[in-house]
Design a protein that fits this description.
By secondary structure, the chain is of the alpha+beta class. It contains two helices and four strands; from the N terminus they run E-H-E-E-H-E. Bound molecules: iron/sulfur cluster (2 copies).
Length: 72
């Protein structure tokens, strides 16, 4: 099965949690840390479970998420 890399820019993320709510594989969690704007950003806590559906990237209002297939 293909592997995917989930990259979330912690300085762009506003911590809205939409990405976490739509992920069918519970890949995304919220970071306990706070970014420069005062938001707790999302991060790929279980990136190995990502199926590359891209729902998180589509729902993100700030375009903070990039999904790439390994090897591409
Ligand atoms: S691409 Fe799909 S499975 Fe992967 S983190 Fe985003 S919502 Fe979850
Ligand atoms: S949807 Fe975008 S802005 Fe909202 S928590 Fe996820 S990465 Fe951050």
């Amino acid at each position: 099965m293909a592997k995917f890399t989930v990259t979330i820019d912690p300085e762009v993320c506003k911590g809205c949690e939409l990405c976490r709510s739509v992920c069918p594989k519970s890949v995304i969690e919220m970071n306990g840390a706070v970014n420069a704007k005062g938001y707790a950003p999302a991060f790929a806590a279980r990136a190995e479970d990502c199926v590359g559906c891209a729902s998180c990237g589509l729902v993100c209002p700030d375009g903070a998420i990039e999904i790439t297939k390994e090897g591409e």
